[in-house]
Amino acid sequence: MSDRVFTKENLIHFRPEHDFFVGVDSDGCVFDTMEIKQKECFHALIAEAWGLQSIEPLVRETAEFVNLYSRSRGSNRFPALLQVIDLLRSRPEVIASGVEIPRLDGFRQWLMEETQLGMPALEAQVTETANPDLATVLSWSHAVNRRIEEVVTQVPPFEGVRECLAKLTRQADLVVVSQTPVEALVREWELNGIIDQAAVIAGQELGTKSEHIDMATRGRYTGDHILMIGDAPGDCAAAKANHALFYPINPGHEAASWKRLYDEAFDRFIAGTYAGQYEAGLIRAFDRLLPVEPPWQEATAEQASRRTTK
C-alpha cells in the first residue's frame, strides 16, 4: 500500500506543470462506489448507531435521497447526516411510528462553528467536550470507515476513465478534489493503478472542495483554464466559487459522460470554446437529474391538493 501522504501544503505550494488545471471528484465520478458505500455502509449504520432499526426502511429511503438522488448528493458526511436526521424528524410516517429521532443539538452546534468538517476536528472536539452527541457521531463515522474498508475492496473506475485521465494529464495538471477521507482515496486510486495520474489527492481533512481548488489554483491559472469534473451539485458550486468551469458526470450515465469528455468536451476546454452555451447546456441537463424536494413531500403535497379540490 502507498505511503504517500497529502497535506494542505501540497495544495498551497502546488507547482503547475501545464497551463491548465483539472480537479476531479472520486466517489461516484471516477469510481462506481457511491451506491455501495452509501447503502451498505453509511445508511445501514445510521439505523444501528441511533437505535432506529424499527423504521430502517424509512431511514434508508431518507438517507438515499440525501446522499444519492438529490441536490445534496456528494455532500460531506457530517452535514449530510444532520440533513437525514432532520428529514426523518419531519416525516409523517416517522412521527406516526412513535420512534424518537434525536435532535443532535451538540452535533448541530459543532457543524455551525467548525470550518474543517473532518474526523481530526471531530475527534479533537470529543476529547475536549465529551459531548455525547458528538461522541455518537464519531463512533458512527469510525464504523463507516471500517465498513468501507471491509466492503469496498477493489471497485474499478467507470468505463472510459483510464483513457480519459491519460488524455487529460498530457495537457493539464490533475488534482483529486473530494470529501472522502484521504486514506480511502489513496487506497482506491492505488489499488486501481491510477494514483500516478494525480499530482495531489485532496480529501476532507484538507478542507472543502472549494478550498481545495482555491489553494491549488490561486495565482497559477486563469478561470477559463480551470475545470472541475464531478457528479454532484457541490462540485459545480465549488467550481463556480472559484470562477472555474464545471463538467458534469451524470448519475446513471457515467460511461457516456466520460466518453463525451474524451471525445469533445476536454478538447473544447483546451481550445477555449467550452465556456458559455456549451457548458450551460451540460449543467442544465445535469440539474434535471437531481431534485430538490423528497418524493414523499411531493406525494404529500399532491394528496393535500386533491383533498382541497374535491
Give an overview in words.
The chain is α/β, with parallel strands linked by helices. The protein has two domains: 8-32 and 158-287, HAD superfamily/HAD-like (Rossmann fold), CATH 3.40.50; 34-151, no CATH class. 56% of the residues lie in helices and 7% in strands. It has helices at 8-12, 34-49, 56-67, 77-90, 92-97, 105-113, 119-129, 132-151, 161-168, 182-191, 209-217, 233-241, 254-271, 277-287, 295-309; strands at 20-24, 172-177, 200-202, 226-230, 245-248. A five-stranded parallel β-sheet has the order 3-2-1-4-5, with helices on both faces. The longest helix has 20 residues, at 132-151. The chain is globular. The N and C termini lie far apart (65 Å).
List keywords for this structure.
five-stranded parallel sheet, globular, Rossmann fold, 7% strand, 56% helix, 310 residues, alpha/beta
Task: Itemize the secondary structure elements and their pairings.
Elements: H1 8-12, E1 20-24, H2 34-49, H3 56-67, H4 77-90, H5 92-97, H6 105-113, H7 119-129, H8 132-151, H9 161-168, E2 172-177, H10 182-191, E3 200-202, H11 209-217, E4 226-230, H12 233-241, E5 245-248, H13 254-271, H14 277-287, H15 295-309
Parallel strand pairs: 1-2, 1-4, 2-3, 4-5
Helix pairs in contact: 2-3, 2-8, 3-4, 6-8, 7-8, 9-13, 11-12
